[in-house]
Amino acid sequence: MKSTAILLFIILLIQACSSTKYIPDYQSIVKKVRIDSVDAKFEEQAYNYVQKDIRPASKLSINVPLYNLFNTRDGRYKTNDIKPFGSPPAILDSTLVEISRTQIQKFLKSKGYRQADVNASIKVANKKAEIVFTAKPGPAYMVQNISDSIPNANIRNLYESNKAKISHLHKGMQYDEDSLTYEREQIYRIMKENGYFYFLRPYVTFDVFGAEPSSKTNKIDLNLNVADPENGSHKQFNIGYTHMIIAPNPEGFPDSVRYKLSKDTLNGIIFTDFSKRYRRNPIVRYDFLKQGELYDIRNENLTYDRLYELNVFKNVKIDYFRRDSTSNKINTVIQLIPQKVMSNRVEGEVPFNGGTVGFTIGNTYTNNNIFRGAERFELQVKGGLQSRIGNGAKVFSDIYQRDFSISASISVPRLMIPFYNPVLGGNGMPHTTFASSYIYALQKDVSVRRIFINSITYDWFETKSKLHSFTPLNFEYRFGNLDPNVDSATIVNNIYYSTLLNRKDLTLGMKYTYTLNADKLNQYRTFVYLRAGMDIAGNLLQGISKLTGAKNDPANDDPAKIFGLPFNQYMRPEVDIRWYKHLGGDRQFIARLNTGVAYAYGNSVLNGIPFEKQFFAGGSNGIRAWQARTLGPGNYNREVISSEAFRKAFFGLDQLGTMRLETNFEYRFTVARNFFGATLKGAAFVDAGNIWNIRKSESISAQVPALDELTIFKLNKFIKQIAIGTGVGLRYDVQYFVFRFDVGLKLKDPQFIGSEQWVIGKFLSGARDFKNAYNLTHAPDTYRFLQYNFGIGMPF
């Protein structure tokens, strides 16, 4: 694999340097484009007017090398059977150069340089071309006076009252046509938000005086016009009644239904459901076009958004009509076409690593309208297993891990709070979710764990970018059993894991999560994303226990109990913060910091954090050079487990900690826009971090004091305990799904000591001997420098 990667890199490097050999002698490849004598603040915008086909690729881009690799034959570029890999080089075209020159000149004139003149020159040497656009911008024209002509007094008052908030125009500014367009758009928006239903953008115009290039002064006067229609003045309209109609099926409305419309009006809404699938109130709740209110386009858009977010209609159409031409009322017709209510999805994955293979398969049944009120019911059944392979053993002959889970949830599109009916939905669809699940996990010859989880969660939007999620009730019942045949020496050597896996307890707590800018994750822009949450449990039960007067001593293994079981008491804050930087086009850089701490106290001061609440590192969404749950904590090395028999008994068991700190840096770009009907994107990344324990009692083996020093977080050992990996990946974007494949390479592995941590040196030289030596002290674990990750969706 290593030699293949190096060979591919060399091929791409050679291809990158040799594009000119594939073109005829009369052609040239554009290697550089410059724009001279343009104000620095307009340079990037001016460059965007250079035609894409003559823009050279970035020096770091692999698009042209990939294109050359797959689309050349007999020393020439192919003219047919073009493979959708990469992008062709920029071939010089004088026609495109002239178009670009003209567009740049028009752009400069629109920015106030009314006398601008742009020339283009081309330099060619060895079939490589450089294009230089040289501008003579002339003086910048400034706005001297601003006046307006608005004959309608109501519109004038409306404009004047909003002018300070919406206008970009002011005396002394540099003339800019974009500012005029913005002003027109803002006036149109204000009009449509204040009842002027029939107002159109062409009613707003500007008179520009003194803008001619021949003008003796560089001063411009502007006059804003908001004209009335020819047949009178602009009028404001109120909403009359609303007729909400649901089609009989996903095929739409047949002509015959118009004669069967309901005539019963309630709160200004006539509701007709030809499908007979929906209750009235859950649907009409999200009609924000209320009878008697002034027409407001924001309410129209809000109605569209919420009705679509109910996820039961595939098409929403809003029309208006007037009973007569003299009325100032417009009546609303909302036509809804239902979508398929039920769906079934089968998913699976094949996790594998050196010495193991397995699979996970799941089936999810969804009903989006189970109680005829757009309630979403979801039932998921999931199972999987993991098996050891090697030494001639057949696949799945040595299964060491089995997992099974079943979960059900009902999500209602409103907040169901006793004795309170909040009116929400202005910024996003609120939900109340009732969920229940059962998890079964078997570790062969070690343990069986059973977990029951029940919760109620409220989700609502403060703004479009601020989401709150609050779980006031989260009840978990955990029942673990060690296998009675587990060797006592194995338990002693892994006392911490043994205690975790043998726990029988319950949790009653609450969770809160705040998310900022999740709505921007699929946009190419610069922003900060934040997801911060707190999981806290046990305080209520601790209070109840104290009220009962029960005497307990959790520090001496005598915790308080409810229904005969000890309850967990802990807090678990976690933060995920990212900086998304747009680099132009489809290029993006992301820096991410993910951290969290799980702290047990009170009734759990001795028993610590439950197994499922601890942190892990590695995997396709974390430090991708490590398989999930195989990194850390700290400098932990499985070599400390004294014999291969003990290591085999606990093979595949998660490596966990009560603190996590990891950071990721990722550069994203587009490889091919049309790759078998979808977009193929690429990524290069560097990941770093680890997990730790924060108290000695949480150590993987509390009976090995030296191990405490390896796994406990200490600031003076922080650098020595950081894992670093790098890699590249591909993302196949089919619009609704992104299929992801990443290859991670270990650079620094904290399980080793000193300079031995920089395992990249072993990868480049002596990898086989290094692996063999590692296997002698870690078998059945094997060492892998490369980790492959398959997934659906972006890693973060």
Structure description:
The structure is a single chain. The chain contains 15 helices and 33 strands. Among the domains are: 1-136, membrane protein fhac (Ubiquitin-like (UB roll), Roll); 142-226, Ubiquitin-like (UB roll) (Roll), CATH 3.10.20; 238-338, membrane protein fhac (Ubiquitin-like (UB roll)), CATH 3.10.20; 350-503. It has an 18-stranded antiparallel sheet that branches. It has a five-stranded mixed sheet with strand order 10-11-9-13-12, with helices on one face. Strands 1-5-4 form a three-stranded mixed sheet, covered by helices on one side. Helix 1 (2-16) packs across helix 3. It is of the alpha+beta class and 796 residues long. This is Membrane protein. Keywords: Cell outer membrane, Membrane, Signal, Transmembrane.
User: Major beta sheet, specifics?
Assistant: 18 strands, antiparallel
Mean pLDDT across every amino acid position = 87
Morphology call: globular
Helix content: 10-25%
Structural class: alpha+beta
Distance between the termini: 27 Å
Strand content: 35-45%
Number of strands: 33
Number of helices: 15
**Rg from C-alpha positions?**
33 Å
What ranges have pLDDT less than 50 throughout 5 or more consecutive residues? none
Keywords: Cell outer membrane, Membrane, Signal, Transmembrane
Organism: Pedobacter kyungheensis
GO cellular component, one term: outer membrane
InterPro entries: Bac_surfAg_D15, D15-like
